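On to our target:
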Amino acid sequence: MTDKNALLQPDRGQKATSLHLVTKDGFAEWSKRLSAGQRAALAAQRFEGAAGETAIVPEGDGWFALGGVADAADLTSWCLARLAEVLPAGTYRLEDPAPGRALLGWVTAQYRFDRYRSEPAAEGPRVLLTREVRGIEAALAEAAAVELVRDLVNTPAEDMGPAELEAAATALARAHRAELQVTKGDLLERAFPMVHMVGRAAGRAHAPRMIELEWGDPAHPRVAVIGKGVCFDSGGLDLKPSSAMLLMKKDMGGAAHALALAQLIMQSALPVRLHLLIPAVENAVAGNAFRPGDVLRSRAGLSVEIGNTDAEGRLVLGDALTRAGELKPALVIDFATLTGAARVALGPDLPALFARHDATAEALLAAGTACDDPCWRLPLWGGYRDYLKSDLADLNNSPSNGFAGTIAAALFLDRFVPEGVDWAHFDTFAWRPVAKPGRPKGGEALGLRAAWLMLQRRYGG
């Protein structure tokens, strides 16, 4: 297995293959420095300098590599990713611009999920030398967080149930000397009734639980990070069709994002009091599964009529948000693979972002743009609160009119966040259906790095 920490190394003059970046507009001028034979080699490879193009150019007894980018003066996170995917194993030195945030893509491009392969890929690593020594640690930390999300989401539900999410949180707590508390069984039923009700049909093997981790100086601002941990979603008694169930191992993608963000916070010693909460359940079918029409009592005391058992994520998040709010946080951020409506509206690449405070939303949007992890704000439109009305209870978990499903889900969550608390909600896909440079098909972190950069800017990390 490749040592990810070895993929970026300080440039101390080691022997390395040269790597040059060019743009399509500047390629003709740049190529004048080449010999006729070298230009012929590029022509044979149909290299014109367009973004994403790569080529190998003979030079003496060796060769150098060439990559096309849109803007050599402003590299994105993914400008070096295609090169890291296709170049031969070896050590490279970028000769022209400083790599900047493109260091991330060099690492994430070499991610492989081979846990279930009998013969993992044998190709060696591509190592990049850089003089931006201070950028190495940050890039490796972010890449490790992204790859943690990918690993957790890519793992099938049989090997990534509530117990395995607890194990991941336990490992994180041990690594950073954090406090861990796990609530399950009879105590879970009393303390987090909606988490218990959603997860009880999964039985002992995948028993529900609330996972909480606390870390940092209590005198620092309290930041709660919450992740939806539905390890598999059958839809419950409102059973999903098989086509919709196929990807439901990824329904714990919110929990994966929350764990990864907590890792970044603790690893960097960000001056906050971190409160990580993961309601971990499997939404299964059994004789004791909760039913359409049932009325659940929440930790907040609100009663919830079940309009659809497949709208279970907002239920477990409701109890988690209530618990976080009890401790008076300065900021709450939650991640959830919550609604298909968000994907219809925004597609797979853009997480839907909701926030109570404009300043927080603007900070997250700006951070996402700055680090190539974009998100898109949708409104907490109060005019749709009537969609959540119930004839029996305080709330219905699933409006039947089919309108504004993503907004309605966010408004449901909003009822469980105490008034005045600064809260942001990411409805993320956590999956990439089609590979892009540095971003293979499969589990993916979407919104994670935007949240991380915003936290660094706000709390001075």
User: Anything to note?
Assistant: The longest helix spans residues 133-154.
